[in-house]
Design brief:
With 233 residues, the protein is of the alpha/beta class. The chain has two domains: 3-109, Rossmann fold (3-Layer(aba) Sandwich); 112-220, Hexapeptide repeat proteins (UDP N-Acetylglucosamine Acyltransferase, domain 1). Helix content is 15%, strand content 31%. The chain is built from three helices and 25 strands. The strands form four sheets. An eight-stranded mixed β-sheet has the order 7-10-13-16-19-22-24-25, covered by helices on one side.
Length: 233
């Protein structure tokens, strides 16, 4: 559920999955939304790798084992979550763990920062983050649980698959197809009418001028394949 789809009286009870750097960014973005008038309360962070306790003005609640207790404490309240994890495979694994609680009071939350620019006929999947300065022009499709990071732009008629990570400053031109789980490094450029296969990595600053197959890493200007990647589980 995204901010734009809520009724004025509804309040988001938000759980952030991951208490690292991106998690702290998500907390900041949520506060920016609150300052802009969005009704959000950050319940806290879930993170398997960090001890329980305070994290700035918020709280690390524990790992996924805390979900059951959180459901009990929040009976009758809809919890919303966003996965603040940069690694695409790890983010997909975390979503899988949460989806095992299907039927419980938890759904993915879509973050659209007030300084994101979103044009007409744009679709944003559940659990996706649009960071400050992102630009999606028109007829753009971004899948579920993606990260479109600071000052990244995606032009007309482009598609980004689920669990992809579009890093800061990336430029995606028109009519581009980016497959599931792709990682497009900071400052990379993808020219128009190019397809990038699922779970492919594009290095920072690379310029993609021709199609890339699935499960490879490509770097350089122009981008060249340097290795094959492992397929996700």
């Amino acid at each position: 559920m995204g901010i734009e789809s809520m009724s004025p009286a509804a309040r988001v009870e938000l759980v952030i999955i991951g208490a690292g750097g991106h998690g702290r960014e998500i907390l900041l973005y949520a506060r920016d939304l609150v300052a802009a008038g969005a009704p959000i309360r950050v319940v806290g962070f879930l993170d398997e790798g960090k001890p329980r306790g305070q994290l700035g003005e918020s709280e690390i609640l524990g790992g996924f084992g805390e979900l059951e207790a959180l459901f009990e404490r929040s009976a009758g309240v809809l919890l919303e979550y966003i996965t603040a994890i940069g690694d695409n495979r790890a983010r997909k694994d975390c979503v899988g763990k949460i989806e095992r609680f299907e039927g419980r009071n938890v759904v993915p939350w879509t973050l659209r920062h007030p300084r994101a620019i979103v044009g007409g006929d744009v679709s944003i999947g559940a659990g996706t983050c649009l960071a400050p300065g992102t630009v999606l022009t028109t007829n753009v499709r971004v899948g579920k649980h993606c990260i479109v990071n600071v000052n990244a732009s995606i032009s007309h008629d482009s598609v980004v698959g689920d669990f992809s990570n579009i890093n800061p400053g990336v430029v995606v031109a028109g009519d581009v197809v980016i497959g599931e789980g792709c990682y497009i490094g900071a400052g990379a450029t993808v020219i128009d009418k190019v397809s990038i296969g699922a779970w492919t990595t594009v290095g920072a600053g690379a310029v993609v001028i021709e199609d890339l197959p699935p499960h490879v890493t490509a770097v350089g200007v122009p981008a060249r394949i340097i290795r094959e990647n492992e397929s996700p589980r």
